[in-house]
Amino acid sequence: xxxxxxxxxxxxxxxxxxxxxxxxxxxxxxxxxxxxxxxxxxxxxxxxxxxxxxxxxxxxxxxxxxxxxxxxxxxxxxxxxxxxxxxxxxxxxxxxxxxxxxxxxxxxxxxxxxxxxxxxxxxxxxxxxxxxxxxxxxxx
Length: 140
Description:
Shape: globular
């Protein structure tokens, strides 16, 4: 009868093999699964009195821009047409997240800590695409 490997050996073996890349369908499923949690987090933050009014207004302006038929880059242009929408949404979410302590976000988040960290990172990455003058105008 063989003995199972020590626990630390199992982790070393698992860590040595990268996880396979997910397909677009799998990624789309994951986004759809986490989207309600993101919207719930945003709703809770927007109704929290501790969040500055200026951040709530920024999110409102971003939402109005997203539903507006007028865009800086027309949507019919492949890839770039949606880029301005995504960047503006990420910028507004990033500024909203940065307006409250991490504990507040964590209290309102109903998903895993890893997912919240990923969402925060994506929002910050998108905000970096905004021109520096605009970022300075809306502060950290």
